[in-house]
Design goal:
The chain has nine helices and nine strands. By secondary structure, the protein is mostly helical. The strands form four sheets. Strands 1-3-4 form a three-stranded antiparallel β-sheet.
């Protein structure tokens, strides 16, 4: 066979992307193996080679089990032979009377992922979760997959690689659906927050040293809602002004230090109307945030 320069080795600097890429390649390879009636039985990093492009190659089928219904010659091993390396092997492989099944390799895949993240396999209870190192939605999914792969009861594991792929596919479909829903609604929460913070920083001033106005009293939720509801009409009245003081848009209790570019009020109005139409469940939070930003500029009595 072709000579490969290296086997899969642990690297504490493995990125999330690299771990997921290796995992996907392993399950792709093992799906082909299992479909051909072969159970590897000795799946471990030393038996995973990497080519010059870091592509995975599964090797060493020396103690693999070959389904006699598919293969006339079953190779060098019988179903009763067991695996010597127990770091990655399924617990039932200690019993020589257990018939080899793909669930054995699936257990090993779970251990390999655990090892890729932490440099050690899992034994006993209270498995160290992958999200302790990579706190992301994708790794949270991989955590669930590893948990099921490593169940001591083979009947509770994935029964084949296809089931793992189905879980990944369902996750991707759900994520895509959520993404499409956001696009259809025209709302992206993270983008909304960034826009709102930027707009209010420009209207109110980003800090106390950069105040655009001061108020003699705090506004309540109803006053803020009235301000937002009337913003479009009030801006139309001031159509000939390019810079506007907040006192012109709320009430006379505000003292303007500087005028604000009309564009920022227009952006606030656009964002508020977008929320009302597409995500009304966020309206109260939106009002609360605007209130806190405006009320931070309340005049402080010096005694």
């Amino acid at each position: 066979m072709k000579k490969y320069s290296r086997t899969l080795e642990y690297d504490s600097n493995f990125s999330e992307e690299e771990i997921i890429r290796i995992f996907k390649q392993i399950i792709d390879c093992m799906e082909h193996v299992h479909k051909r009636g072969i159970v590897h039985r000795d799946l471990k990093p030393q038996n995973i080679l990497l080519d010059e492009h870091s592509n995975v190659v599964i090797t060493d089928f020396g103690i693999a089990y070959y389904n006699p219904e598919i293969f006339e010659i079953t190779g060098h091993t019988e179903s009763s032979e067991r695996l010597a390396n127990f770091d990655f092997a399924a617990p039932e492989q200690r019993n020589s009377k257990i018939e080899p099944k793909p669930t054995m390799d699936i257990y090993a895949i779970g251990q390999i992922v655990q090892w890729l993240v932490f440099g050690e396999t899992h034994k006993g209870t209270h498995r160290k979760k992958l999200i302790e190192k990579f706190n992301s939605k994708r790794m949270a999914l991989l955590d669930l997959i590893v948990e099921k792969c490593l169940d001591n009861n083979p009947n509770n594991r994935y029964q084949n690689i296809k089931e793992i792929m189905e879980d990944i596919s369902n996750y991707n479909s759900k994520r895509k659906s959520n993404s499409n829903e956001k696009i259809n609604k025209g709302i992206d929460i993270d983008e909304l927050k960034e826009k709102l913070v930027d707009i209010l920083d420009n209207i109110c001033g980003a800090d106390k040293q950069n105040k655009k106005f001061e108020s003699y009293e705090k506004l309540n939720n109803q006053q803020i809602e009235d301000f937002l509801e009337n913003l479009s009409e009030n801006l139309n009245k001031l159509q000939f002004f390019s810079d506007i003081g907040i006192s012109k848009l709320i009430n006379d209790n505000f003292f303007d230090y500087s005028l604000v570019n009309k564009m920022y009020y227009e952006e606030l109005n656009k964002l508020y109307n977008q929320i009302k139409v597409n995500a009304p469940e966020l309206k109260s939070s939106f009002i609360e945030y605007v209130k806190s930003a405006i009320n931070s500029n309340v005049y402080e009595i010096p005694f």
